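re: that chain from earlier
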Amino acid sequence: MPPPPRPQNNGNPLLEILIAIVAPAIILMKFSSEQHLGSLNALLVALAFPFGWGVWGLVKERKLGLIAVLGVISTLLTGGIGLLKLDAQWLAVKEAAVPGLIGLAVMVSARTRWPLIRMLVYNRQLIDVDRVDARLAERGNGTAFEARLRNGTLLLAGTFFFSAFMNYVLARWIVNSPAGSEAFNEELGRLTLLSYPVIALPSMAMMIAIVYYVAHGAKQLTGLDLSDMLHHHADGQAK
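^ sequence. v structure.
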């Protein structure tokens, strides 16, 4: 049960970790017994945390982003597997399917005029696009830069495929008890805790490396420093 994407402008990653990872894991592992909430109620309460966090992000942003929607759907599917007491292998399939679908969408975007990395990094809210494009045209490096954007998008898709593979392996390794049982909840809690250091942190490191790859390429191809490429609005906000 990976955490849903953090709403933009939240500015508090520690709060996200507490709400989407720590709280659900503690509830599943410590309060699933019949002496406490019971397996069903504990599952519902635990899932309410990441689900509420994802919905709050959608309301705050006032738009339906694909990744945020998939995060909410992922939480609902996890709850459905527990409530319907489906075979535990379906949890592993669900864990792999969500990042896998995102990876496919990212990979397809690399073959279009608007690879996803362009929307995430090379956009007018962040970059002085006119200035960078003019410098690329002046040096005849426009085609080379587009190729780097596409390569960056394919690398980004690779991080989601890595997440899908690791999600499946981790879920199959940890969650083996019948869905809806106390043991299932406890294993789901351990999966939630381990998914952050084993999957989320390496994926985040990969994404940082991809941003560096694109930024370093832009610097080489334009001859501009990063501070010269940033849009003056973004630069002003950083100050």
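The chain is about 75% helix and 0% strand.
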